[in-house]
Fold each of these.
Amino acid sequence: MTLQIGTHTLENRLFVAPMAGVTDRPFRMLCRELGAGYAVSEMVTSRKELWGTLKTSRRANHDGELGPIAVQIAGTDAAMMAEATVYNIERGAQIIDINMGCPAKKVCNKWAGSALMRDEPLALEIVQAVVDAAQPYNVPVTLKMRTGWSEDNRNAVKLARDFESAGVQMLTVHGRTREQGYKGHAEYDTIAAVKAAVRVPVVANGDITSPEKARDVLAATGADAVMIGRAAQGRPWIFREISHFLDTGTYLAPPLVVEVRRLLLDHLVEHYALYGEFSGVRTARKHIGWYVRTLPDGEAFRGRMNTIEDCAEQLRAVGDYFDGLADRMDRMPAHQAAEELSGEEEAACAVD
């Protein structure tokens, strides 16, 4: 089943959530290779003075990436957000996504991210400015938000109608309030209410960790797609598992250990190429840790791996670990349920 955003036809209804420090170009490309139909970039600031920084330039790197290229922007000033829209479009963005879902304190304290839901006039002003800035380029605007600021202020349905009227062409709703962060459980009644209130595609997000959960959330909400974040960390093949289950009602066998070895090593090579030796070996540690966290001797290996400060040595260590694993088992263990997920607010703004 395909989905249309503006002139872009998405391959399927399984999306990668934008996650700061995670969904860089190598990770997005890996998830697309393994069955995701769409991936949104890490959040790019609307603050012009930061556009020239190494962090922002890496986040805006789309070399070799399959389209459509979707870039998420964040900020609190309508004019700055409009300027950021044009800046990113001129550098390859084919879809602009507005961040109103990030609950991280360092973002919300500046009244960006999900804090904007607390100021409805400002939120609408920003959306209208971004839509107007993107319109001459025929670039669609999408938006990711939460159910509301707090338990007593769930205003996602009202805002969804306003955003649709302003020209937003797809809405993603994470089933928690800003107040919840990533605690507790996502609820899907509000997402269903948003879907019933608007005509544009609606994407359900939050706690989607298995093929069965994806099926159940789609059924409960009527959503057009699901967005997956934390569950893809160390398990990017979750997208093809869900796709197979939705298509056939049967489970795909876990991947072969030798395949995962190849995927991870290829991912690391691309990661090092983007970040360089010093940053690459350090920022790769979290990805490696996610892969091995539930595997035999995984914690011990992660402890040793975190002391390595050379990319080539890190690559060899990972290869050796998975060679040893392949001697013990042909396939990766069957996935354990969602309690493995950790809510790393700092490292995962807009994480599922």
Amino acid sequence: MKVWIDIVNTPHVRFFNGIIKKLKADGHEVLITARDYSNIHDLLDIFGLKYTSIGNHGVTLEEKLLSSTERAYELSKFISKQDIDVAITKHSIELPRVAFGLGIPNIFILDNEHAVAANKLTLPLTNKLIIPEIFDVWNTIKFGMNPNNIVRYNGTCEVTHLEDFKYNENILEDLGIKLTKEHVILMRPEPSLASYLDTDCTKSVLTPIINELKDIADILVIPRFKAQSDIFKNIPNVQVIKTPVDTFSLMKRVDLVIGAGGTMNREAALLGTPVISCYPGKQLSVDTYYIEKGLMKRSTDLNEIITLSKKLLENKHVDRHIETDNLIELIVNEIYKTYSENKNN
């Protein structure tokens, strides 16, 4: 069997790594395409995954439309020559369109019900959809997804990210980070280039939070792109971390994570580090999963965030293990089922 995986965002490299290893161990061929965006290529190189780079990512709506259209065209030319059996992706706009056009059965992984534009473009063309149990299924059906082709699981996509993780307790020393305060806080800005979030990429909701906390803790910031890193440079007690980096060891090493995004917040929750989400968009159901289990706090109110931060910094970490489905095994089995169903038809 030959499986096509399209990777369009940095966290998706970790997400698919275990799946790719499992497929290859079972004797199958995996073809990876990836767009040139953020640190996708760097991470693929670090994980030793061979890939073909196709397309990029726009900033304005016009640029996004043109980039996606051009990328679909280039992918169509490339994939049409590859004899693919099954295609799978997480949030790629182009893969379902290309796979549908070429008659390739495709599987779509979804964890953002508020990415309305993307869901409208992809779900009607998706053969099989994999979503967390906490998702309201209506948020997929209303965009054209066949409810009979939905697979649900207990947990979130991030449970696959910790596969083979080994904690480096000397991560700060290895990065040459010198601490001056008793506590360390790791922060992640909002995904301001994403189509589902209407924000100014030259500003961040983290700035006022940093101003209130920089005198009581060393603050590490992992920006998403260069313009975002410029927002935080030259602020006392704030160090901007260059990527790619061992973010898991960083998250486990610090005393608190404050994130205006999603993935790193959920990863930190799984690692047992106290987390405050200040994501400026509508609350995602996958965040609700961790909030309800007491592994994440959420607020967009500055005073409440500061109060929560000071309280969490003084509390000792309490590790809480949560039972989730084996998502790697579930997804690989769905790939096999999809392949068999297509052959039988």
Amino acid sequence: MVHDNKKLDPLDGLRAPQDPACDVFLTGTVFLDIIFTGLDSAPVRGTESWARGMGSSPGGVANMATALARLGLHTSLAAAFGDDHYGEYCWDALEQGEQIDLSRSHTVPGWHSPVTVSMAYEGERTMVSHGHEAPPPAGSYPNCPPRARAAIASLGPGSREEWVLHAADRGTKVFADVGWDETGRWDLAGLADLEHCEAFLPNAEEAMRYTRTDCPRAAARALAEKVPLAVVTLGAEGAYAVDGSTGECASVPAIAVEALDPTGAGDVFVAGFVTGTLAGWPLADRLAFAGLTAALSVQEFGGSLSAPGWAEVAAWWQRVRTCRGQDQAALRRYAFLEDLLPAAARSWPLRRAVPTIGFRTP
């Protein structure tokens, strides 16, 4: 396997000439994220707070797209971009910086980019967002959805996305997450596209509310009757999955880390799980890898800024094996990484660059 973060291919040896060029397709809203860091506490009404750090990056669906691309998957994103400087910056950061295919995206004249300001402190964050819904493109996104190994959909109560059915009909594995149900009904039947999904990845609270259970594991088992693979994230307790087709269950504890900013951690978890699934790894290994990538992401500020690549995973693995006092049984849970990872060229901890709008290269 090539020992280069940009070129490492988790599907090396699995690709065939007749396979689709796209590994993962997704669509959604791209925000410009402005992240203030180094705050000692939440802002207080009537006062001015100064942050010791600030960064800017594409956010929203770009968090997921970036996480997938950094793990070596050929990622295609269909989204609207404003024709303001924010939109130009997000487009360039994704296409040039992350090598994400934006051929199915479009620029909307006169539409300004949605913006989220995130303030991170005490391991949590507070966000303020502003934006308007983008007008639909003329006709539809070109060649959308493309032939792809996988697609990621965000399900909502009472809504149906026509592209999900088209993708599933073409053999694409659809992975779905879900947000908070503002209607309060928590009706699983209201998630119309769930029937077309290969896997469903809610968090524990969402899973229990949708299944009317009081235990995340019971919720996962109930969801596995509706979808081939149910994965319930348990926060600090890790994740639990049930394969409805085989009856296999897997539980992997979380990695204890000092969380600086949880923004985008759920997106990174999904990206890690999709990567392991497409690579054909065992269920427990997929859970472990997804949890590891999410844990690495919360140690950095920002959403797409914090998504780890293979170099970060390799540096972590090199470090934990050489630190004293490690739980050897816990380390064996990640032994599958040994044959996958590049040689770590940089030491831990890795500091990822925080880009800021405004600088120009001569």
Amino acid sequence: MSHAESVTPVHQAVQAPLPANHLVDTLLPVRPALVDRGSAVRGRPGMVDELLSGPDAVAAVLSRRQGLVRGSNLVLAGAKDLLAELTAAGVAPELVVYLGSALPAADLPAGTELLLFVLPEPPEPGTAGIPADATWAGFREVAAGLTATSTALFVESSAIANWHAAHTHCPRCGTPTDVESGGWVRRCPADKSEHFPRTDPAIIVTVVGPDGRLLLGGGGPVDARNYSTLAGFVEPGESLEEAVVREIQEEVGVRVTACQYLGSQSWPFPASLMLGFTAVTEDTQATPDGVEVTRARWFSREELQEAVLSGEITISTRLSIARSLIEHWYGGRIQDLAGA
């Protein structure tokens, strides 16, 4: 698979000055949770209906994988009033999910109850209770400018909405399933089986050769300029380390001799969790498989910085875990073309 971009700003995780290819407990520090997802309470029957009938719960809105955004924030509207206006306009949510309650680290009053409305169609701003100054946007379009709380809510909302969209029927018997536990369980009414949200683990790796050079690759046209870390999904029965060794061997024919976990980031578009590693190899030649990877290239630190500044290549954006892994190897911040 091609590398996936992360969903939380990570450029702040790389602090200068740092020794090149330094090792820490995790590359990406563990930040305080912003939302209590309420796993102990969301299974109570009628909980969502109670929140919808009360005055205090607020709701985020998603439609066709786009969120409702205003400035640097995901729009959070009064759930009761918004539901009434959407219903009156004929665009009632096809799914309502309990997201949880705001924790003290969030930029919301602690305890604020949070819901998600998933709409079949996105109403025009200024209609159906949608604020006129709001816009519909995909996460990639706005991630760089969102607050930490809005990022967390957008990610959680997208992950659960994507799961529901792909798991409408029982995998055992094909019967349409019912939504339970505030949107976190689907139950088959025929065989009573329960089905829970899933996440697909994927490893993403910086490969360092015996001379300290970094191996980057890319897919698509062989003359394309974009290069990034190598990545792939973990297969059933594999450990993460086994997946690192297998994917690097399959994609570029390089044998990994050791690897170390550095950190992770969620990318629920539709359902991935990117697990970042750095790895070492004694090999100096890389052979792209021609399918997942069509080009591969070794870079010294000086060569990589020069290639980026000259526009010869592009590398992953600062929102991606791939960029943080590359800068971890580099030992500091890599300057982008035009000072980006």
